[in-house]
Write a structure and sequence with these properties.
single chain; 326 residues; alpha/beta; six-stranded parallel β-sheet; five-stranded parallel β-sheet
Length: 326
């Protein structure tokens, strides 16, 4: 049978993880800062070769910023029937993510799938001919299964072990986040932080906060599962009303205390799927509450097994939805 669908994943160029071609990735990062794409895997040429052979119905780009806009232009001119589907859960319309190549490629997308960010941000996907597909963040189905197994093997004895009550935050530096962490530190709450950008922080003001290098892959999900509490802050920079961390923690067997948003609470209700806060004072109050009521964690984690089945937020399920687009 001939090839009908081409799928290209951002994971081919995920320079934050251990990879075999550090020099190429370094070049990619440098070029990316200037809005220039660097297709070191030569995917653009491979797309052209497949399209020339004919019968390509779909090209699914999972944040395929390394694909040249001129390649997509060729596809639409040579094979107008081929649908180009762009799939990215990041907000590509903010300065930190948008590139010149993305801006030039946008006109060639037939479908655009991303995370729902509310009316204002969604309106930026404004090509009349383009169909918008807005949804919740997804999680690799293998991590969802591991989360189920982890929660089902837990016992109240593990929750009650005071020596295991670590509080974790995984994410980038942000000044608002520093203020939250500073307040927690001043109130004798210890937090382990993993992520980039924290070297610039004045550590003397954060004596109860431990800063660590970023973690990825299985280390990332194991840390989430084995942490007593995972903190989540919604980045104003990305203009999110929900972020990937919400689904990653809830779906992989972790316990989440998150900054509140109406959208998150709609899908993951307060005190059923997660605990929410609106202020630093409320965050401290919620942490103390959970420490005094640890069995609430197991109750919420078990509820989330059913919630993830109900919402069906696996990446595989979303990919199958995209494959069904005609």
């Amino acid at each position: 049978d001939s090839i009908k669908t081409i799928t290209l994943s951002k994971n081919f160029i995920n320079y934050s993880q251990s990879i075999r071609v550090p020099i190429e990735i370094f070049i990619y990062k440098v070029f990316f800062r200037f809005g220039i794409r660097y297709d070191y895997t030569n995917c653009s040429a491979r797309i052209v070769n497949q399209v020339l052979k004919g019968n390509i119905e779909q090209i699914i780009l999972n944040k395929g910023n390394f694909i040249n806009s001129s390649t997509l232009k060729f596809v639409k001119e040579y094979s107008p029937k081929t649908k180009i589907i762009y799939w990215c859960e990041d907000n590509m319309f903010i300065r930190q993510h948008k590139t010149r190549n993305f801006a030039n490629s946008f006109q060639f997308f037939d479908y655009y799938y991303s995370v729902d960010r509310g009316k204002n941000e969604n309106s930026k996907i404004k090509e009349v001919k383009m169909k918008k597909l807005l949804d919740l963040p997804t999680l690799y189905h293998g991590e969802i299964e591991k989360g189920k197994q982890f929660v089902n093997s837990m016992s109240s004895n593990l929750i009650d072990n005071k020596n295991e009550r670590s509080i974790t935050f995984i994410g980038y530096f942000d000044q608002e986040r520093v203020e939250y962490l500073k307040y927690l530190s001043e109130n004798n709450i210890k937090v382990d932080v993993y992520g980039n950008g924290w070297k610039k922080v004045k550590k003397s003001n954060l004596k109860n906060i431990t800063f660590n290098n970023p973690i990825y892959g299985e280390d990332y999900f194991n840390k989430i599962r084995n942490s007593f509490i995972n903190l989540n802050f919604i980045r104003k920079l990305s203009k999110d009303i929900i972020n990937n961390k919400t689904v990653e923690v809830i779906g992989s067997g972790g316990f989440l205390i998150s900054e509140y948003s109406d959208f998150q609470n709609l899908y993951f209700p307060h005190e059923k799927s997660a605990i929410y806060f609106r202020t630093k004072e409320e965050l401290l109050e919620k942490i103390i509450y959970v420490k005094e009521n640890p069995k609430k964690i197991l109750e919420i984690k078990k509820y989330n097994i059913k919630k993830m089945e109900e919402l069906n937020l696996s990446t595989l399920n979303m990919y199958n939805k995209l494959l069904d687009i005609k």
